[in-house]
Amino acid sequence: MVKYTKATSKGFTLIEILIVIMTVAVFGTITTEMLANASKIYSSSIKRQNLINEARSTFFKIIREASWQKSFSSFAGSNNKKLVIRPADGNSISYEIRQTNDIIQSNDQITGANNKIITNKVEYSNSSIAYKNSSGSTIDIENQISDIKSLELTIKFNQESQNLLFRGEITPYNLRIGRAMSYHE
């Protein structure tokens, strides 16, 4: 009796190799696109987070230092784009929103701290400082400086296509108490 042996191959056929190569190519392309999109999203979120951090830092620094204001007369020299702060120690700190879309700080308390740009991501036309009287109405600081009870700070930050609007009202501690009587000064 004659026995037939079955021939077996110990490799892949050309079709099998091509199918594997095509599958790897498709999955590689999908993975590459996913990684590219993820890196774009990550980059965008990092830029957004940097804008948020800079905006918060700037805004809350101005609010904190505005709360140090000693009296309504200490606002002399301020306007709707500039805030002059004269704390109890007699020095002055000023913040100015400039048309160059930045905020500049001058600080007499620290040597070399004058005209320092603290942010350059401000939208000039949508940022302002409003001074308010005891009823909450906006007043003209030059003519009604003695009526100031609080101030409202509005700053719009922007970077590329990302915008943040911060608005806060500050009532400096000494203005909450009221005017000092002549025997206190």
TrEMBL record:
PROSITE patterns: PROKAR_NTER_METHYL. This is General secretion pathway GspH domain-containing protein. InterPro entries: N_methyl_site. Keywords: Membrane, Transmembrane, Transmembrane helix. The chain crosses the membrane at residues 12-30.
